[in-house]
Amino acid sequence: MHKSRNFLGHLYMAAILFYLFMPLIIMGGAAFNDNRLPSVYPWKGFTNRWFVELFNDQVMWTSFRNTILVALAVVLIAVPLGAAGAILINSISGRVRGALYGVMVAPILMPGAVIGISTLLFWNQVNVPTGLHLSVLGQVSYIAAFVMLLVLARLQSFDPALEEAALDLGASHGQVLRRILLPHLTPALGAGAAIAFFQSIENFNVTLFTRGTSNTLTVYVFSKVRAGITPTINALALMLIGVTFLAAVIYEMRRRSLARKERLLAAPAED
Amino acid sequence: MQDLLRRYGATLTGTFVLLVAFWLLALVILPNVTLFEASFRPYLPVVDVGGPKDTYSFDNYRKFLNNPVDTSFLGISFQLPIHTITFLNTVLFSALVTFITFVMSYPLAYYLAKIVNPRALPTLVLLLFVPLWVSEALRAFAWYIILTFNGPLNAALVGMGLLDAPVRWQNGVFTAYDAIVIGLVYTYVLFMLFPIYGSIQSLDTNQIEASEDLGAKWWQTHWRVILPHAKPGIASGCVMVFMLSAGSLLVPSVLPSTKSNWFTQTIQVWMLESQDWNTGAAYSFLYILLCTVVVTLVMWAFKVKLSDIAK
Amino acid sequence: MSAEIDLDDVCCDFGSFRAVDHVSVKIRPGEFFSFLGPSGCGKTTILRMISGFTEPSSGVIRIGGKDVRGQRPNQRPTALIFQNLALFPLMPVWENIAFGLEVRGVDKATRRARAEELLRLVDLPGAADKMASQLSGGQRQRVAIARALAVEPAVMLLDEPLSALDLKLRQHMRAELRSIQKRTGVTFIYITHDQGEALAMSDRVGVMSQGRLQQVADPREIYNNPANGFVASFVGEMNILTGDVGATADGFASYATPHGTFRARLAPGAAKGPVKLYIRPEHVVLTPDAGGENAVSVTVGDVAFEGNFISVSATTDSGKHFVAELRNDGSATVPDPGSRQFMRFDAARAAILPDETGTA
User: Fold this and answer.
1) Helix (H) or strand (E) holding B51
2) Average pLDDT per 10 consecutive residues for chain B, totaling 311 residues
3) pTM
4) Which ipTM score applies to this complex?
5) CA distances from C335 to A25, C309, C320, C332, C343 (A)
6) In angstroms, what separates the C-alpha of C204 from chain A's closest C-alpha?
7) Does residue C156 sit within a domain?
């Protein structure tokens, strides 16, 4: 009874993985098809010309550079904002806490397009022209909330007695922050920075309404996909998937070696 | 506040408060206030802004109710304004996407949380994450390739003898939104999976065994023990998937049929093609209303708090 | 270095709740002083007021004669050892110990040397580069003490630091703490709800209940001459009788109860408010012979062998239960369960005490 249910489970897992990866493989495969239209079928022979075309596409390179710059700016702004928000939320209680928390997480639940439009309208009113700087601000408004949630979760495992102990030993408030609180928050801040970076790279909705005439990679991909002209986009997709997969493999190997080390270190000392 | 001052002193507390104030005021509250205000003003040439014609009215919202066209639902024909139809279709098909992703995710979440070998789990979760990191535009594009008339899906189905002739999937077999639903499900299914997985994982396995030990059938165990425990995760997943689907602009634009229209596309036309930001603001505000209603409904139906949903 | 701590009529309110209620006590330089009381009696609040994490609502706190009100914790010459020790989990042991020196700008080599020196003092050499999580409970305790000593405080404040240890280790650490205190000469203020701990280690004990200081005295005095009923029954076991005070003479009074009239010492101040009669089980004698003062006939119930003593429960004819503890040194004959005996106690060893000072 249990055995057969487990088997069904494994089967289902395999089916889902197939479902998730098959479209990516098909899309990647089309990058090598010597066909004017992006498709794996009919197969007209192997080519690398879409890659060559992609590398010669100056717009792609500009978009790529813009995407990285925007993502870095978002990380630099969203991490301090989110961390400050979490620290603030963590040390107040009652109604004010509930209200602040609500305002902070609301942008996560709001459609990206609306965030983009409201950002556009507000900064337009104070005479700030459109452009990628607005995209950064719009993205920060909801990405900071992700950072806040991560840091808040980490703060919940923080023992405030550690801060008191440091103060009691003569540390200033700045020293407490630098030596005690920030080291404890480092994993959450790191995860927050990574999430902020990837969320920003992924972002389309906010960017579309605030970018002015500049391109980011998602906007570039979107315009290419809509036009649907050449498989250069498949070449780009394949490379992005490749980078993602490589990152995942490196991460997995690091995790395994860390887990092995931890098992070796796990034996605590006796009195 | 007292606590904060005691723990971090005046300088640091001041810095924290200023940072948060900038975030919430300049990036969240004021933009939305501006949006709300602009939605009641007419779209005017620059010279007329602030002039006698610049008065508050509901005109922008009235456009939502203009241009009635014939439509039918469940066999009943009636007239509805065109943008209202788009809005209702967006809500309806987003709800459908939410339901499908739930049905797909729940068994998998249970499998990951309670059946799979814990040592294989991190690898599996990582594998599931990989497609999530691939750009949304590309994930939708992948399905565009699969579903094209001369594409691999038709080739495979015809080749296996399951279809006599290729099908125009993108134009819709059941509804005009088939391809969009397929694309949205593929793009957002993991946003349903992970919250449900998280909540099932926190359930003590002894409770499942106790339920079985007391004679419950497998479906009774799920219905009475596991599902109730997973409620916050399900609520969170539903809200996320619904919001992302309803708010998606990429998927409906990459996988459209001749008759499909998503509400975000309508807003995009107002904003970027008509350059009528005021009507765009009014429609955006309608979207905010929809979000508020959905989140409130889910919180009420699942009896969960906002902090359970936003995780 | 050590300093006198002077709490002068200190109160502390949290909203409408008064956690500390008019506490006045002078703790002498170099003294090992314990605040003893049940949880919620206000002893931790006193500690937090001395260390500066909580400000008194009224009253004055002086350390070494200086009013410290308004001084922040990092400005006071105190070092606090937290109940959970609060060792910094991300720093190795020596950085933990040297943290107080680090924030004072002491250079690294000096810090390291001082940490090693303190580790030897607390009998934990060679642990400098371990992480706190790799240490056992007792070792962590020593690191916490070394960390507090590193800043050369005038006063060490200890918030039940032994409560997480098992019994054997706890008894060992008691002796250890006492010996570190004597060697360093630092004033120790110790918070505990464990009367054994307080009595065994302290020069003086302050017993607290409901925010008030009930009695301040050396451990013997606390045990032998409790000031009131709360101290009497919180510290050690007691047989308690309720009745009325009769004729008094020479510090003794007769006390009429439903189970007989007894004579006992009358505590000063016991005249006002409700009083009870308290007799320690080890002062109760069981004999087959009638006669003499404070004797009442009883039926022996359970006889429980506890090792170093034998606990006998006995019931008077009027239905009152008593507990008597007989030393297991062969001097007492152990009565048989069910036998008829006479229970007797020495009037000088029994006391008529008010329920609680200050509540009246």
Assistant:
1) none
2) 80 94 94 90 77 80 81 75 88 94 94 85 86 83 84 80 78 82 93 92 83 79 86 90 91 86 89 86 89 85 74 54
3) 0.81
4) 0.85
5) 91, 14, 18, 9, 11
6) 25
7) yes
Integer angstrom CA distances of residue C119 from A230, C99, C101: 71, 14, 15
pLDDT tens-digit series, residues A117-153: 999 999 998 988 999 999 999 999 999 999 999 999 9
Closest by CA to B105, choosing from B244, B198, B228, is: B198
Distance from CA of A260 to the nearest CA of C (A): 17
Angle of helix B277-302 versus helix B82-110 axis, rounded to 10: 40
Give the Cα separation of B283 and B294 in Å (integer).
17
Query: In this structure, is the dihedral angle defined by the CA atoms of residues A82, A84, A90 and A93, taken in order, positive or negative?
Result: negative
pLDDT in tens, B128-138: 888 887 888 88
Residues 6+ apart with CB under 8 A from B41: B54, B55, B56, B57, B60, B278
* pLDDT tens column, C212-230: 999 999 999 999 999 888 9
State whether B206 and B253 are in the same domain: yes
Residues of the domain holding B79? 47-309
- A114 vs B138: CB contact, 8 Å cut-off? no
Q: Considering only residues 111 to 140 of chain B, which have any Cβ-Cβ distance to chain A shorter than 8 Å? A: 111-112, 115-116, 122-124, 126-131, 133-140
All residues of chain B having their beta carbon less than 8 Å from the beta carbon of residue A196 are: none
Q: Which chain C residues contact residue A159 at CB under 8 A?
A: 84, 86
**Which two three-digit tokens encode residue C234?**
């919180």
Contacts of C128 in chain A (CB under 8 A): none
A116's enclosing H/E stretch is: helix A112-125
pLDDT tens across A155-190, in order? 988 998 999 999 989 889 999 999 999 999 999 999
Say which CATH number the domain at C277 has: 2.40.50.140
C342: left (phi over 0), alpha (psi -120 to 50) or beta: beta
- A vs C: CB pairs below 8 A: 77
Taking the CA of residue A100 and the nearest CA in chain C, the distance in Å comes to 25
Task: Kindly state which CATH superfamily the domain A59-228 is placed in.
Answer: MetI-like (1.10.3720.10)
Chains adjacent to B (≥3 CB pairs closer than 8 angstroms): A
Q: Please tell me whether residues B234 and B167 are part of one structural domain.
A: yes
pLDDT surpasses 80 at A41: no
